[in-house]
Specification:
heterodimer; A: 329 residues; mainly alpha; two-stranded antiparallel ribbon; 13 helices; 6 strands; globular; B: 346 residues; alpha/beta; 6-stranded parallel beta sheet; 6-stranded mixed beta sheet; 12 strands; 18% strand; elongated
Chain lengths: 329, 346
């Protein structure tokens, strides 16, 4: 698989990468043209661009994790529920149990990692399809979140009095030089995983398994171990998104994150990753997340009816994926 | 071929964007006026209209209404009343956004309104804590804020308009205490946790019961204000309890959902149903009282019309608004239901 690729393939790959950016550029240009009011450009406004970056960060982080799993040809439907569980848990631990921020975050991140681990182990050792396993763990995570907070939303007040949470945690809602902190987290995570997939041996194992699992196994790759690691990472990243989410909305609610898995999958799909596995990149996912975010922003700034937004978004997703799917052989 | 389809879809998208957007770029004269107040603090925003020597120099006003969930009929009525009231004032243009119960979406909706530099923000927040920061951002940026029905925390807003949920809850409690002096078993079907009206209707109800020990609340669960969830919640209550005398729903959909569940179990005759909202629509509370489904409901005014009238006083006349405007309620039973239906426009 690796170095025997013909010249045609590598040119094809380069062109294909370029295609990801085409849909992003197109949407960016359209947004810049139509989101105008009087003599002001609403879209190209720095505050608005920062808003867009902020709004895609949670989804982006989850989508990075989702990319890992989809590259295997699998999927993880539990990411939204794990986000809800982490956000709720963090809030309860900090507000009701008075734990300090660092400890609470560590605990909930471990929980999210364990969820991913559970997904990976059941998928590989029990041979149950990822769709089913993660559908089940989605339900379990949601139920756990509801039990943990007894169904209530737990508001987070930042301050130093008892019952309040250290403002350090609130910093996740702030902006540094205009760039939202969650976006910085997203960029760091994307870079780490892009390097992991592209330049390490582990990364090549991932693509090998996604491309042809049997061949990979016969090559001596420990397929099960790789899968378990990837699912665990996906769970962990959902946990990170959850910790950021709770700080962003100053609340941990067991109803948060419902439907978020759909946005994560959409970002990955628009980014050019194949649902069958073996093909896709983190940069593609980042582009996909940005495309979705700009789309949402554009629809919002034009005050388009919420229902219409859903319909338009659906068509855009199909259109963007079709654009990416040009056969190059 | 594939590329053609993709291009076609992109083309449709552009067409839809341009055609369906409600905001027009015609209000160019507001940009000059809007950018100046945007830098000032909230306290100075009342002087913004005063900067214009005559109100006529500012042509139209853009009002952004951030709704939390159009899935609730009561909120559909709120938006409709806002739109109807705005028609009286040609200088007002109102745009609506719906967050579908998602806090993150509502935060993004308000951020979009801030970017659009709306002249006024009306908001009915999904939950108090998550929306407080972004509402404060709007307020600090010089955009006056009217909060409807559900509160935000703190006081970074111009005016709150809402019904008195504690009062309504108390009246419902008093109704039960009056009609069941020898005791009753009550099932409570609550609204969305984290929304202030829910807490106030629950607290008020318990106050209204007046410490009568014989009246017991045997089951209390949330249905998120939604009728279909109320059916499920009530089914569970019916399973768990053989004897139920009163069902107190925090809104009419909750009470009606409970009624449907009880009817399915053949037990609707054993209990009375109490709701809140009292909308005069064909599927609203007043009609349900007329049908005999509910024993009593309490009008919970949406405040939509009051919000637009307040907007006019603030934006055009430059008046200062009251911080808290509490609207009254009316108890509707079979005795006055017909009259109420005619009065409110059935």
């Amino acid at each position: 698989m690796p170095d025997n690729a013909s010249k045609k393939n590598s040119i094809g790959d380069m062109l294909w990468q370029f295609k990801n950016f085409i849909s992003l550029i197109v949407i960016f240009i359209i947004a810049s043209i139509i989101c105008v009011r009087g003599d002001r450009n609403l879209f190209l406004n720095p505050t608005n661009l920062a808003n867009v970056l902020r709004s895609i960060s949670e989804n982006g982080i989850m989508a990075v994790g989702m990319t890992l799993v989809i590259l295997l040809g699998d999927i993880d439907l539990s990411v939204g529920a794990v986000l809800g569980l982490t956000a709720t848990g963090a809030a309860v631990l900090m507000v009701q149990n008075g734990l300090n921020v660092g400890l609470a975050i560590m605990i909930v991140l471990i929980i999210s990692l364990v969820f991913g681990l559970f997904n990976g182990v059941v998928r590989t050792k029990l041979g149950i399809q990822a769709f089913i396993v993660t559908l089940a763990s989605m339900s379990i995570a949601r139920g756990l979140a509801r039990t943990w907070s007894k169904g209530y939303s737990v508001p987070i007040a930042f301050g130093t009095e008892p019952g309040m949470v250290s403002p350090v945690y609130g910093m996740l809602g702030e902006r540094i030089w205009g760039i939202p902190l969650p976006t910085i987290c997203f960029v760091i995570i994307a870079v780490i995983f892009a390097i992991l997939l592209k330049y390490t041996r582990f990364g090549r194992y991932v693509y090998a398994i996604g491309g042809n699992e049997t061949a990979a196994y016969l090559c001596g790759i420990k397929v099960d171990k790789v899968k378990i690691i990837l699912f665990s990472l996906c769970g962990l990243l959902s946990g990170v998104a959850g910790v950021i989410h709770a700080a962003q909305v100053s609340q941990g609610s067991p109803n948060d994150g419902i439907g978020y898995e759909m946005n994560a999958i959409a970002a990955v799909a628009i980014g050019g990753t194949s649902m069958a596995g073996g093909k896709g990149t983190i940069i593609g996912t980042v582009v996909g997340a940005l495309t979705l975010g700009i789309l949402d922003n554009m629809l919002g700034l034009k005050n388009i009816d919420n229902n219409m937004q859903q319909i338009v978004k659906g068509f855009i997703i199909i259109g963007a994926v079709v654009l990416q799917k040009e056969k190059k052989r | 071929m594939k590329k053609l389809i993709a291009m076609l879809m992109a083309g449709c998208m552009i067409f839809l964007m341009a055609g369906c957007g409600q905001s027009q770029s015609a209000a160019s004269n507001q940009t000059a006026a809007a950018s100046a107040p945007a830098q000032e603090t909230a306290a100075a925003q009342e002087s913004a209209p005063a900067e214009e020597p005559a109100p006529e120099s500012k042509g139209t006003f853009l009002i952004g209404m951030s709704q939390c969930n159009i899935g609730e009929p009561w909120r559909v009525a709120m938006n409709a009343q806002i739109a109807a009231a705005a028609e009286k004032y040609p200088e007002f243009e109102v745009v609506f956004s719906d967050a579908a119960q998602d806090n993150s979406k509502q935060i993004a909706d308000v951020e979009n309104f801030i970017v659009q530099q709306v002249d006024l923000l009306i908001i009915s927040p999904n939950e108090a804590a998550p929306l407080t920061a972004v509402v404060k951002k709007a307020y600090d940026a010089g955009i006056p804020v009217i909060v409807l029905d559900r509160r935000v925390e703190g006081d970074a807003y111009t005016s709150f308009i809402g019904g008195d949920n504690v009062l309504i809850g108390r009246k419902a409690g008093e109704y039960v205490a009056k009609n069941y002096p020898d005791g009753a078993k009550v099932v409570e079907i609550k609204g969305l946790e984290g929304a202030t009206p829910q807490k106030e209707r629950a607290d008020g109800f318990r106050e209204g019961l007046g410490g009568n020990d014989k009246i017991e609340i045997i089951y209390s669960q949330s249905c998120d204000w939604l009728r279909d969830k109320a059916i499920t919640v009530m089914e569970a209550a019916l399973q768990a309890n053989d004897e139920i005398d009163v069902v107190y729903g925090h809104n009419d959909p909750a009470a009606v959902g409970a009624y449907l569940a009880a009817k399915n179990a053949g037990r609707e005759g054993e209990m009375i149903f109490i709701g809140i909202d009292g909308l005069p629509t064909p599927d609203g509370g007043i009609q349900e009282v007329l049908n005999g489904t509910m024993a009593v409901t309490y009008v919970y005014p949406t405040g939509g019309e009051e919000a637009i009238d307040a907007a006019y006083r603030l934006l055009v006349n430059g008046e200062t608004l009251e911080k808290e405007v509490i609207l009254d309620t009316i108890e509707i039973t079979i005795e006055n239901a017909k009259e109420m239906m005619e009065r409110f426009g059935g």
